[in-house]
Amino acid sequence: MRRSAAGKVSLLAVAATVLSMGAAAPPKAPPAADPPVKEPVAVGYGGAVASVDADASAAGVEVLRKGGNAVDAAVAVAAALGVTEPYSAGIGGGGYFVYYDAKSRTVRTIDGRETAPRSADAGLFTENGKPIPFEEGQTSGLGVGTPGTPATWKAALDAWGSKRLGTLLEPAERLAREGFTVDPTFRAQTAANEARFRDFPATSALFLPGGQLPVVGSAFKNPDLARTYETLGREGVGALYRGPLARDIVNTVRTPPVRDGATRTVRAGDLTEADLAAYRTESRRPTKVAYRGLDVYGMAPSSSGGTSVGEALNILEGTDLSKASQAQYLHRYIEASRIAFADRGRWVGDPAFESVPTSGLLSQRFADSRACLIRDDAALTSPLAPGDPSDPVPCASGGTAAPTTYEGENTTHLTVADKWGNIVAYTLTIESTGGSGITVPGRGFLLNNELTDFSFAPANPAVHDPNLPGPGKRPRSSISPTIVLDRAGLPVLALGSPGGATIITTVLQTLTGVLDRGLPLVDAIAAPRASQRNQATTELEPALWNSPLRTELEGIGHGFRQNPEIGAATGVQRLPDGRWAAAAETVRRGGGSAMVVRPDAG
């Protein structure tokens, strides 16, 4: 995400903009050390890492080289991303961890989603019977859920890791203390958050050094986070859920530290020390569907990723996408996505609170009953009504639609494989870009605003909404870490993406790009994207928007709107000769970073 080649040019553009506005040039910032080389694809032996960031990928490779396994390396990468991608992830957030164990040839998952306070109810985001403005949930203590990321690290390491947490945090701790190189993307994200960051003194002091936006090419340091990591490494992740750090989190949520004179409405949350102490990750059986003779595993609810990607693949199973024209392929992919989102909106929520028909949503019988809605000569219209997995009626179009609610788009995904063949696909987040905007004073990390993934009010008053808030409830997610195995249980590929609700479509499009269209993984990741989420129009990236394909699809009734950038995927693929191919974005979010332990057979 950081350190694109465009960074050197962008610095001149930024300087010109500042001078043209008549503003004083910011003070000179200390130069950063040369960062690791950032490449979107790497092939070799000994294990592989793909993330959005070169420093983070390098932290994972360092662990693999020292004998760590994929789980160890994934924790090291995630911790480093908490330093270099603090607006996307960190110990103030949560995520979903999918693990392939090479010895047993099985897939396991950890639900590390944030949870609502035990005092929360369906009216968490309403006032006088009406939903509060979204921005008042977004930038507030009210939107903060109990973080799940540190507990996820512990659960994964306890079950499958081989190294101490303290050892795995060392690369990230060093990065936080010594600094990383600011690139144009980090500066742009800071600029987009500048107004709200300035309203919180601890956030402003950290991310607006000297009161200015961070300078491209300078070293950005976070000594508070280095000390926090040191504490977690010494005392264990329990230090975040009990004791002084837990108290600091709770005090920050319940009394948000807003600057004097700020006019922003910043609502307090009701998180308690008891909420933190009670937090537990959930070990869940992965979702599984058969597709083109392969087994596709994903994340079960509370995420809707596994059920939605799985249902869409089942819908597409009946079409030979390898022989379809590009327009036919996109049409089928768009319609399968539309249908899957219609069904997830009605049926998917936290299974501790909702009766989620996971098996039904993933059944081929249900998919076939929905696939017959798709016509080659006409597009479906949204919002499309859901089907009923318990009573699949072919081509049923009745019922009441539930519109897709908003989800924050800034998250991060990492994918790791080791020399033994173990794989991790791990997506972690603090929700919006910059999360809640609130930094825990003296601790160096932003708090999530993940509870805004709940419906503020029923999406459709006529239909039960499974995603309303509740005490200790996990908000529905679209996070979709995915691992594909052959029928012998050996790995084919693994991938995931950030992007809010577009995660599901990004993963689906990338999977079909590799498995159906025969693209190399890096090319499937780089391909221009479309995203349909049961909305009136489908989002298109510019390369598709400006393509004759748009006109061809509009001719059968599709409507479109532009989105400059959809998702930022990473993945790994096992090649027939035993090498690993790691792949990341070539351009999106400044490009990603793919690395392998040994780039050759030596």
UniProtKB/TrEMBL annotation:
Belongs to the gamma-glutamyltransferase family. The active site is at residue 411. It comes from the Bacteria. Coiled coil: none annotated. GO terms for molecular function: glutathione hydrolase activity; leukotriene C4 gamma-glutamyl transferase activity. Residues 383-407 are annotated as: Disordered. GO terms for biological process: glutathione biosynthetic process; glutathione catabolic process. Pfam families: G_glu_transpept. Its EC number is 2.3.2.2, 3.4.19.13. Keywords: Acyltransferase, Glutathione biosynthesis, Hydrolase, Signal, Transferase, Zymogen. Residues 1-25 form the signal peptide. Cleaved by autocatalysis into a large and a small subunit. L-glutamate binds at residues 113, 453, 477-478, 500. The keyword Nuclease does not apply. This enzyme consists of two polypeptide chains, which are synthesized in precursor form from a single polypeptide. The keyword Acyltransferase applies. It catalyses: an S-substituted glutathione + H2O = an S-substituted L-cysteinylglycine + L-glutamate; an N-terminal (5-L-glutamyl)-[peptide] + an alpha-amino acid = 5-L-glutamyl amino acid + an N-terminal L-alpha-aminoacyl-[peptide]; glutathione + H2O = L-cysteinylglycine + L-glutamate. This is Glutathione hydrolase proenzyme. Pathway: Sulfur metabolism; glutathione metabolism.
